[in-house]
Amino acid sequence: MNVTEAVMTRATIRGFKPEPVPEDVIREVIETARHAPSNGNTQPWYISVVSGEARAKLEKAIFEGAAKGLKPHPQWPPGGIGLQGIYKERQYACADRYYGTMGIQRHEKEKREELSMRNWKFFGAPHAAFLSMPNYMHRAHALDLGIFLQTVMLLFVERGIASCPQGALAAFPDVVRKFVHIPEGNAILCGLSFGYEDVGAQINKAKMDREPLENIASFSP
Prior knowledge:
The protein has 221 residues and is α+β, with helices and mostly antiparallel strands. The protein has one domain (3-79, 121-207): NADH Oxidase (3-Layer(aba) Sandwich). It is 39% helix and 13% strand. The chain has eight helices and four strands, in the order ααβαααβαβαβα. The protein has helices spanning 3-9, 23-33, 52-67, 85-101, 109-116, 139-158, 173-176, 213-216, and strands at 46-51, 127-134, 162-166, 186-195. Strands 1-2-4-3 form a four-stranded antiparallel beta sheet.
């Protein structure tokens, strides 16, 4: 598989088999991904992987906290905050297609909330990773984390491993820290659920469009 094939093959997957990915494969991917570029070679990223019993305990803790009234408290503003114009329209279209794939209409709030809660079940993936960086850093360093994250996802694709990048996994940092090592002074920016795709899962049939080239690029002679 070449890079172009990996880019075109990668998709956000939300239905996984319970079979875990061998730890040596996960380590190999991260070992390779650390060669991703960063501004001034600062390499601000830190990735914390949780699997097995620790993952199960974390999921339980999040749901128990939510049942007691714990509200999301991310350390950075969520990606949907402040969107306007075409960007807000794209977000709505994405949500409509996602929920529509599962037969859920916009007015069915309870069903939408139930599906949304799958974020904190890691969509059934056997592994989750949390990406963090020092909490005093800013947007330019977040860009570095994005480059690192994309590198990890493409390396997973090459190895037949599916993944789902999730801003939602930054919503409960205090709970995460009880089960996952996050360096002191770091703040969680996002998470990544990953494992082997459950190919027949209905939720994986949600496919998103991309804007045509002329809408996202210009070329000056």
